[in-house]
Amino acid sequence: MLFISLVIFLVIKLSPSDPTAGLPLTIPPDVREKIRESLGFNDPFHIQFLLWLKQLVYTEPKFWMNKLWGTDFEVGQRMISYATRSPVMDLVVQRIPQTLWVVGISYIVGILIAVPLGIISAYKQYSIFDQIGTFISMIGFSVPTFFTGVLMILLFSVTLGWFPSIYDTTHEITDWNSFLFQVKQSIMPIMVLGLFNAAQISRYMRASMLENLTQDYVRTARAKGVKERSVVLVHVLRNSMIPVVTVIALNLPSVFGGALITEQVFQVNGLGQLLILAIQGGDVPVVQTVTVIFAVLIVLFSLIADVLYGMLDPRIRYD
Amino acid sequence: MVSSTLRQLSEDEKSQAGQAHGADNVLEVRDLQTVFETQDGTVHAVNNVSFALKPGELLGVVGESGSGKSVSMMSLLKLLPMPPAKILNGEVLFDGRDLLQASEDELRSLRGGDIGFIFQDPMTSLNPVFTVGFQLMEPLRIHMGMNKKQARARAVELLELVGIPSASDRLKDFPHQFSGGMRQRVMIAIALACDPKVLIADEPTTALDVTVQAQIIELVKDLREKLGMAIVWITHDLGVVAGIADRVAVMYGGQIVEYADVDKLYDDPRHPYTRALLKTLPADEGLRMERLVSIPGQAPNLKGPLVACPFAPRCEEAHERCWSANPPLFEVQAGQKSACWLESEDTAGAA
Ligand SMILES: Nc1ncnc2c1ncn2[C@@H]1O[C@H](COP(=O)(O)OP(=O)(O)OP(=O)(O)O)[C@@H](O)[C@H]1O
Ligand SMILES: [Mg+2]
Q1: What is the pTM of this model?
Q2: Nearest alpha carbon, ligand 1 atom 28
Q3: With contacts defined as CB-CB under 8 Å, which chain B residues touch A223?
Q4: What are phi and psi of A171, to 5 degrees?
Q5: What does the pLDDT look like over B295-332, one tens digit per residue?
Q6: Domain check: are B215 and B296 in the same one?
Q7: I need a labelling partner for A270 at 20 to 30 A (CA). Which of A38, A191, A240, A285 fits?
């Protein structure tokens, strides 16, 4: 983890970007220099890195503890974004709900579409349903989200005018109508991401079901007089879910990657957009922090995947 | 409606069968023919197989690997993957009903209920993610309408019956926590769960050591007498068959080549393949053979209908006729049939 953040740090530092480049040209060079100094931009690399690290694991937790539980820790200089001059963590916390909303719901939508699709496709292998399903998921799989996103905007916003093309993040849910609006404006980004997820997961689901349907224990279940429905939805599904659940957990971080692009297309100001703007503006602390958050997520979800695997498969037990 | 016409049909069958065997058959199979339609051709796995079982009878089925023993028996309850498998022809009469014409629901109510099935491979035949208890209680709850508690009690009873120690503790264990022999016994317990009228046992004792095997055989003998269970016992072990079977079907190339009462078969084997099989029996009787492969030559190619005797290439007594036509089963004497052209002269006609 430390290593990842160090590498990211060096990569960003090596690129010739200047946090003051975005400031108005009228600011004289010596003021510019002062600003750089105050941001700690002129310190040696390792000092900057260690400072950032200290802020991330020491200063920030104290600040949030104070805020959440009313504790009274001494809080030093918080991590400051070069571009906006506000604490990085405040930015992140502001952006997280939008991203979670879009990513989370699209993932759930994806799973809800993918699992039944995979089951039916496998059970009725080579049927029309399976072939259409395969075709659509091939498309979902291979066409990038920015393309489907733009396509959807063209179709549903520009041509049909059903949904807004731009996600209004300042929108607040106060009553039923504003909730409906929230749903309406989320539909497209969620569908774009959701379909992408569904395409992937349904392939895994189908493959896993197919493999299990030919196993000997399926014949045993049938020979016991178990209803076909239970044979498929209890005996086979339970076995097929083991690898699929793992894939679902492992894939989640990469969905954040997909969200990055989708957020850009629909102008959702979530974490992804924050990251992209920060990269463009050379805002090192923000880039650092957001990427480390992504890295933490990846590690976290692979752990979750392992735990789930152990829970679902009785043959694997961590004693 | 349907069942009454089926029953009607069965009366005729029964009277016919009655002439041959003198009692009602619980299971009668006629001219069963099953093929696999694969990418490189049609595999004729089962060719015109017929046999009959009365309550309490035990039919031993022997034959080398690939001779179609498992496929024949799985065809009875349509337990084969279809496609690729396809039952082209035949009748499977159980209690007068033709199972090949029965609806999926009717079949399901028989599977695991009146007809129990023990599969060949105990290592893969149990579902790895459910407890043995769950898998054993499933048929009880489906067919006997038991609640959880009753099913549990019966499950413990069954595990004890097949000789699994501390049965009530083991119900919550998963299959991987059992040895191969133990799993085999669990499979047997599942098949016996609902006191079936017919038990089809596909090499039920191969994974067991000799003493356990003897126990299981005793158990089966016992159940036969008590419940009048009819049994089809597939095995490679001619020694076992001699000890428990009433009748034996010797299979080769997907067909029954000799079908005889057990003493007649051992005293006077008529088909050259049966004779070859018996020759491979170790002199020290009771010794187990792993596979019946010690006969020289190759197993027949089943890609295509049989136009010659499938055993001819390996037969010492093969003559011209064996290469030009596949012999039907000839009745050699009462209670013994053999599918060999050598029998055609001294018997009046084809059976
Ligand atoms: N799914 C399948 N597709 C194609 N052919 C098959 C399939 N299953 C079985 N067969 C063929 O059917 C024939 C009979 O197989 P079966 O399993 O009945 O043999 P068996 O007598 O039970 O052998 P064993 O003693 O090894 O169990 C074999 O030639 C086999 O190749
Ligand atoms: Mg077999």
Answers
A1: 0.78
A2: B66
A3: 77, 79, 111-112, 117, 119
A4: -60, 135
A5: 677 777 778 788 788 887 888 777 777 888 788 888 87
A6: yes
A7: A38
